[in-house]
Amino acid sequence: MEKIHTTCIYCGCGCGLYIHVEDGRVVGASPSPAHPVARGRLCVKGWLVHDFVHHPDRLKVPLIRRGGRQVRASWEDALSLTAKRLKEIKEESGPNAVAVLTSAKGTNEENYLLMKFARAALKTNNVDHVARLCHAPSVAGLSISLGSGSMTNPIKSLARSDAILVTGSNTTGQHPLVAAHILEAQSRGATLIVADPRKTQIATLADIHLKPKLGSDVAWTNGILNLIIERDLADEDFIRERTEGFEALKESVSKYTPEMVERISGISPEDLEKAAIAFAEAPRAAVVYAMGTTQHSNGTDNVLALANLILATGNVGRMGTGINPLRGHQNVQGACDMGALPTVYTGYQKVEDPAAREKMERAWGTDLPSSPGPTAVEMMEAAEEGLIKGIYISGENPMMSYPDREQVKRALESLEFLAVADIFPTETTALADVVFPVASFAEKDGTFTSTERRVQRVRRAVSPPGEARSEWRVAADLMKRLGVDADYSSAEEVMEEIAKVTPPYGGISYQRLGISGLHWPCPDPSHPGTEILHQESFPIGRARFNPVEHQDLELDPEYPFLLTTGRSLFHFHTGTMTRRVHLLNRERPRATVDINPEDAAALGVRRGQKVVVESREHSLEIEADVTEEVPKGTVFIPFHFQEAPVNLLTVHNLDPKSKIPDFKRTCVRIRRADS
Amino acid sequence: MTLNAALFLDHENLVPLIEELGKTLEVVAPVYAEGEPVFATWKGEPLALDADNPLNSPVEFFLPQKEVLFKYVQCSGRYTFQDVPPKSRLILGMRPCDLQAIKVLDEIFGTELPDHPYASKRMSTIIVALNCTSPGERCFCAQMGSGPAAEEGYDLLLTDVGSGYLVESGSPAGMFILRAHSHHFEEALPEHLKEKERLLSLAEEEITNRRPALTPEEIRRAIDETDWGEVEKRCLRCGGCSLVCPVCHCFSVMDRGVPDGERLRCRDSCVMAGFSRMTSGANPRAALGERLRHWYLDKFVYIPEKTGMLGCVGCGRCSSVCLSEIDRWSILREAIE
Fold this sequence. Notes:
The structure holds two protein chains of two kinds.
Chain A: E1 2-7, E2 16-22, E3 25-31, H1 44-47, E4 63-66, E5 69-72, H2 75-93, E6 98-101, H3 108-121, E7 127-128, H4 136-145, H5 155-158, E8 163-167, H6 171-174, H7 176-187, E9 191-195, H8 201-205, E10 208-210, H9 217-230, H10 236-242, E11 243-244, H11 246-253, H12 258-265, H13 269-281, E12 285-289, H14 291-294, H15 299-312, E13 322-325, H16 332-337, H17 354-364, H18 376-384, E14 390-394, H19 398-401, H20 405-413, E15 417-422, E16 434-437, E17 446-449, E18 454-458, H21 471-481, H22 491-501, H23 510-513, E19 518-519, E20 543-544, E21 561-566, H24 582-587, E22 592-595, H25 597-603, E23 610-614, E24 619-626, E25 634-638, E26 666-672
Parallel strand pairs in A: 6-7, 6-14, 8-9, 8-12, 9-10, 11-20, 12-13, 14-15, 15-16, 21-25, 22-24
Antiparallel strand pairs in A: 1-2, 2-3, 4-5, 4-16, 17-18, 18-19, 21-26, 22-25, 23-24, 23-26
Helix pairs in contact in A: 2-21, 3-21, 3-22, 4-15, 9-12, 9-13, 9-15, 12-13, 18-20
Chain B: E1 7-10, H1 11-21, E2 26-33, E3 36-41, E4 66-75, E5 78-83, E6 89-94, H2 96-109, H3 116-123, E7 125-130, H4 141-144, E8 156-160, E9 164-169, H5 172-180, E10 185-187, H6 190-210, H7 216-225, H8 228-234, H9 240-244, E11 251-256, E12 261-267, H10 273-276, H11 288-307, H12 317-321, H13 328-336
């Protein structure tokens, strides 16, 4: 038996763990005691991470659609057909008729090569990935206010905070190792403030639990800011020395009196005041947030409001402080860093900036397109309109994870050509013309960048099943077929190229990563990496306050319930992996809609009964769970379950600033299925 | 040289000895994987015998996290079954706590109708145990009566007495190894034996000083008096305690693959809701707190009733992997204080 140190495949915590291998098979996993985040611990998904690797459902051979059926094909045929079809579409309809969706589950090396494939080979900036559906507002918002769109502090910093505001994050369920650090701070005496309409585990552990109505985040955050400014608790030295635009903020938040905030959010003036004082008086306070903040049609404003809060209280650039967006995939940070976004190359170098473009053109020895492409959800719209005709999707499952499933289906079905690479058959591979079987995390080398900007190694422990290959090879092979030089002999060689063209990754090399990895920015080989951002200055010089206003959202008396979506502790994303892990799927075998007992009584619904949840366009039959975890008027459905795909009900209600859809607030009505 | 008496093995002779044994057996030993000790197949790399007992117990070589019980192959409508033969192994450096866990498991899996997958691995494995002369922070084996000195259950037992290892045999297989490889050993001197006693009593003192002992009666009372609802509130549901425990042995069986495939047995956990939930959806231990209480009762009441031995060996792994930092010993102690 061998034990190979690698990085977990699930959430952004990026825990180090050992994969146990016997006779070429993964037979177990255990936590890594020396890993700085795991510290010898794992969440339940991490402990069981080994179970899906050899599942018989794994894709083992390339498939090509012939006569309506997907049939076994050779790699040569699958690669050639993909290159040929994408090239034909590009030549007939222009480069912007093709697009690439990369994967936050892939390595940095894979994301880099797929991004290069789109730009250098297909000559389009039509490249995006699932970050659009999670932290696009963080990238947009924090770039404006601080100059960098990622977690400002490392995870361990949270254990040293004196007050932590957790908002829109079911941390105990979705980032358990981050939750452990937060609870460590609380047991040391820190005040834990949780803002969440749901009674999640971390909310029940909180010292102060604010229960805002869905869509009222700007209002209560501004309300807290207003109280802090009124009571002279703002950090005036910090504001004077390191920020700009405070006067406008002060003016704008002054109308958010506790009474007004209570009207909008339902949070009592007493609770609001307690939270404001605890946060402002703490010597080191931090904000932690996730999808509950970003997945709204005003997601960027929510982020800007939180950034205003940490700037006004001077909580930046020190251990125990900061604004910390928790990233949901183990490498969604890395996929963004690698430029798998329609507007930027690696390291957030803008495609519209002629200097950046020239630099990449020189490095890649080819000319590059200059106008940014559409975002992921917009791509689906463009596909339905016939503007995008060919897509390569890497390990994403838009049929389950994107809003408005019926629209996604129409969009993907209307394509002239769709290639999908994945480890398991999914609802999306079912629609593909070519399916590439690729290696799982246990079968390939590369790096993942965790939520705290920690670049870490993932190590090949076993061979991929059947004919499956590492996806960086697939990307390189496709590039070669489209005339771009891509002779990489290893993932390590790809990282060498990444380091050359990506300033924050300039000092990153496999030799340096060890088990703890390195935090970017790490500009040169002698640089120790940067745990805490913005210690002396901001990339934009002074940080900027950005006043944001609450917007009243429509309520529909015909559809009186607000549906919010999310994940369960026991499953990950669209469930392709965790639903194949025996113990996890047994723990949460099917989808339920969580309904408050009062609502359930009014509807005449008991636990276990089937109900129909209807939005304006679609309806979904699903089992009811009656629980105090959701407040009256709100219902919750996780999106892991293909038997009850909640994204049938969600819609393309995009945040104008970041193009994220509003997964967290859909108006629905509910009736008993037998009525 | 008499073989029943203890022998002495020079530090330098350990590697040549296991190299010789490794010619016919797979040697499993604590080695460093990226700097941390783990039990893995030894391939000649430096041994981690001086490091703390690895976080994952070598019990996994008898009760793997996941094992193939047999493969099934369908041919013309008939199924044939292929057995998976056990490997001949030597586990070097198993600590007294893990050895005690094996003793409990032998009682559970090995008596009456023996569990074949367990028993076959057990019978094809040589255990070379290592007494704990420098116990880890998390250990409370002395309080559980399972360490720091091993008393039985090993084939060979090593004690590092500074100048080398004192080697004692505990089985015919152990004696056979000593005889067949006698050129590596010397006669142990009385001072080696004295040093062993001294080091182990120091170790025992260190362990007991760290955590005041609880009697079985006190533990029983503590389980009754603990506020399990409060523990449930804090528990982050990782299942780590039960997945890392060397005595925990619940498993789940499933078939994977149609028409051909494998019957797998994998480690299960009674702290998970699905473990006790019935097909109807009813769950006799619906609350996590009740399941955690059951886990303690199993260790301190049910297993002792069944085997005459405690179901906890004091290795401390459950506390050290606990995501919620719930120290097992402390919650019991706090409950009765």
